[in-house]
Amino acid sequence: MRFAVIQFPGSNCDVDMYCAIADVLGEEVSYVWHGEKSLEGFDAVLLPGGFSYGDYLRTGAIAKFANIMPEVVRFAQEGKSVLGICNGFQILTESGLLPGVLLRNHKLHFVCQTVELKVENHQTMFSNLYQKGEILRIPIAHGEGNYYCDEKTLQSLEENRQIVFRYVTENPNGSVADIAGIINEKGNVLGMMPHPERAVENLIGGCDGLRLFQSILSFWKEGIQVAQS
Amino acid sequence: MHRVKIYITLKKSVLDPQGEAVKNAAKSLGYSELANVRIGKYMELEWEGSDQDIQERLDKLCDQLLANPVMEEYHYEMEKL
Questions:
Q1: Which terminus of chain A is more solvent-facing, meaning fewer CB atoms within 10 Å of its CB: N or C?
Q2: In whole numbers, what is the pLDDT of chain A averaged over residues?
Q3: pLDDT band, residue B52 (cuts 50/70/90)
Q4: Of B13, B21, B68, the CB nearest to A58
Q5: pLDDT-derived band of residue A223, with 50, 70 and 90 as boundaries?
């Protein structure tokens, strides 16, 4: 399986993401510069965390006009996996690939800690190796992770089971309905504030994030089996 | 040439924690009559063209880039330079 990690000026979790795929998951991965125009040959796209374009104007607001973004949108429309983490999530909402927006944390502080997440939907291409209701320990590091959407959008997220991860015990940023990660209606674009790529080895404090990447791989492999049979 | 002054504010339904923090700071300084604070953005643009052309293009730019309609509202004023 071939993963692409998109690099924007100001991305800073691109290397973490690359290492999670190359060294731990053991699959092929390449960096793709934001000025590129093609994602040909890739099976999944990863939008890393960081501060693309210095977070100028709003987080993700400038990144959505990067050369590579129309191709990311096309890639998503084809039903292929797109995962945005932290700033990647902010870029996905700004681009309209996911509903809602990420606001400033309710207590105004940048929060950097390990949080507990509940797997709300384990039947997605990103979460199929987790148990339903399983509690994960994953790091967060953000100043603008306060997910917001209007009532109607929230209702449709709930009804379509698009909320994949929720904060439990404590909501670190004030997000509506304790949302930590959501998926699009079609089920192939996931955005989340916590960093699973920073939780892939016990040496660095835990490996609850690894199964997210393994889920993508397993879905991709099984998809091929289905196609062949 | 026109000067365009754009005011971008959070929608009323969106909580403004920054505004709340400023309100609380002001109250602790003794401004107990202060009822509410909302913080937004102000931008100044200089733009060539006729009033009508600018307005049409400007609305588009605001929706596309300058404001995020999910959480923000905007209004603007234009003056001839």
A1: C
A2: 95
A3: confident
A4: B68
A5: low
- Give how many domains chain B has, as a whole number: 1
CB contact under 8 A, A105 and B21: no
Give percent above pLDDT 70 in chain A.
97
Domain layout of chain A by residue ranges: 2-228
Q: Single out the catalytic residue among A13, A86, A94, A142.
A: A86
A195 catalytically annotated: yes
The beta strand positions in B1-81, using DSSP E, are 2-10, 41-47, 72-80
Contacts with A104 (C-beta within 8 Å, 6 or more apart), sequence order: A143, A144, A146, B17, B18
Query: Within 10 A of A224 (CB to CB), how many other CB atoms are there?
Result: 12
Q: The CATH number of the domain where B16 resides is what? A: 3.30.1280.10
Residues of chain A with C-beta less than 8 angstroms from the C-beta of B37: none
Clarify whether A106 is annotated catalytic.
no
Q: How confident is the model at residue A227 (pLDDT cuts 50, 70, 90)?
A: very low
Domain A2-228 in this protein, CATH class:
alpha beta
| Spatial separation of the C-alpha atoms in residues A17 and B63, rounded to whole Å | 32
Give whole-number Cα distances, B52 to A1, B57, B59, B76, in Å.
53, 9, 11, 14
pLDDT at A229 (0 to 100): 32
| CB nearest A148 (choices: B14, B18, B66) | B14
Question: pLDDT digit string (tens) for B26-46?
Answer: 999 999 999 999 999 999 999
Contact status, residue A149 vs residue A177, Cβ threshold 8 Å? no
Give the structural domain span for B18: 2-80
The mean per-residue pLDDT over the stretch B62-66 comes to 96
Query: How far is residue A50's CA from residue A12's CA, in Å, rounded to a whole number?
Result: 5
